Amino acid sequence: MSGGIIDLSKEAPPTEVTTEICIIGSGCGGATAARLLSEAGHEVVILEEGRDLIGPERTQRDAAMYDQLYMDRGGRATSDLSVSVLQGRVLGGGGVINACDVVPSPNAVLQHWAAKYGLEDFAPASFKPFQDAALQDLSAGRIPESLVNKANNKLRQGAEALGLRGEVMMHNRVGCQGLGTCLIGCPIHSKRNPRMVALPAAIEAGTRIFTRSRATQIKKANHELKEVDVRTLDPLGYHEKAPFRIRAKVVIVAANAIASAQLLLRSGIGNGQIGRNLTLQPQLPIIGLFDERIAAFDGVPQSYAITEFEEDDNAEHGLWGYRIEGISGTPGITATLLPYSGAQGMEGMALYDRMASSLILVPDAPSGTVEVARDGRMTIQYTQRANHQERLRHAVEIGAKAYLEAGATEVLVPTAPPLRIRSSSDAKNARQLTFAPATAPLISAHQQGTVRFAASERDGGANLNGEVFGTRDVYVFDSSGYPTSASSHTMTPIIASSRMLTAKLLTRI
Amino acid sequence: MLWEKAEELAIWIVKAANCPYTWQASRENLGTSSLRMSTPPPPESSHDGLFSFLSRRRFLKAGLVAGGAVLGVGGGGLLLLRGRAPEVEGLRVLDAHAYKTLQSLVEIMLPRTAAIPLDPAPMDLPRAFDAFLADEPEHNVADLEKALVLIEFGPLAFDKKLTTFSRLDPEARSAHWNEWAVSDDLLRRQVSIAMRKFFNLVYFDRPEVWPYIGYPGPSMTRTRSVKP
Question: What ipTM was estimated for this complex?
Fold first, then answer.
């Protein structure tokens, strides 16, 4: 059997495909499973909505790349537009468009899951070999000082002046040139992500990948041979085209916590837990403005984090508190986060090269749902809880003080109306922020939950093997299964848990 | 009496947007009523995008709020307020009135300033919006058409001024639009965010803007312009 990538926007789809295993989604979860299963001799087909956008096709331009690399052309959001939900739609999934942060699940979180949710396979000792393997897959290492840019150094300088704990982060880049466009795809492929590691190995072992193909429904989920209805897409992925069907003994859904739940709900399979318990880990940007040129677009966008206030052993929630991470974006996406229009907005963006920005990352308790209406429309309902807002306010105060210590003339909190902090005493004004819906540019890059792993059908949507309750061999192998935040960054946990779940699957097929 | 007139206004706004919606509400269920599509969306319309926040219910509620400001004015009179819109060739989705509304919006959102002395008009960003919309699911297109009607009649609906958005002078238009971002009304905040996201993304992605913001543009071999 020969593997390969077949772009169904260019080639006629097969009328019907029969395979042993059909995997929906080519990101960290799906690609990892495909590699291990095909290397073990199983016949695997991957379905991916995005296309294989590589090399100079990754133009480093905002409009085209958000359109082509992100779900809903970059416009996915919660129903009230309070949180922008970033999700990859490209061969390789989220690993292609993330900031390369490698943060394994802390042992305390894994212990919390084992003790509180009965996820014994995730207990630190059991899970360690899989996390170690994930770190190897990623060629994980500490970001070298030479790639820590001035913007991130400003955050570090401020943290050190305030005596706050922080760290240069781990990443999965090899041969990075510091082009600064990680969030819209690396044109020189320095990310050791699923597109560069797991998928080539899977193809070598015989995996066939259909790009520009959207799974619309899973049928006969209780039968030995499942049916997956698929639609091909046009070259830019805007419109559905020809239908075809895949028959498979095993179906693995790994399309991200939003899209996996959406597919299961549209298929009418699983129990009443599907779509519930969504966590978004909403992040809030703050911007330090300096008199000197910062040029945050030079170098790695995210390399330093203040971790002083992050807890990984909260008795009720596991991962809790918050962290503040340096970040930079290309001009287009940066401008979308600013709260101004008109002359004020133009004057704000004129200071683009003097900005050093951070994202405040605040783990949340499950408080969202993915819903699918009868007409097929999907909505993400999410309510930001008071304890989330409280930690955000504290973090804004701390982040602002850090930038001011580092020499910022002003710190902008891009809420509507904006909060401008010009002195340490001003920072306490952060306590007045209300975070009413659609007044702050919150971003979610780490969606989790929606098909929670659980020992009992009463407590979740899938069992401890990842098998969706009420089905026969329909699995979820992505962050959908996590009962709470696995980590501040989910790439490593997803690869590790997919490795673990695939190893278990291999003992049964 | 008040609700009846408000209903009329809401229906009128929806009709003006040429949306395939039919009125399904009664006075008893105004708080939760919806405008239901007369034909179901095609199967591919399963993804919510930038404009899906404009749920039918919310739009209706906004229309009803607007009603309070214009109860004494008939629908025909409102239509005349828009005035004429010059024909625009090559649009894929938007009509001339919607295009004119967007031109007026871009003019005040991305004005020529001392810091960035570029005229946005030659960039024809409304056409970029039209091109974007042409490949969106039908329900997003319909939502957006309604949003543009709401923007155009915003001065009337929310400021009790007998004029439309495009007819305001730039200073008044800018002041009116800036209120949307901080409005108590969720819908207006949402429309403000959606427009800002789209036009800021497209505008600041243009190379002619970069020299004014200190961005050297994409590079395959970046050389650091500052020391870390």
Answer: 0.95
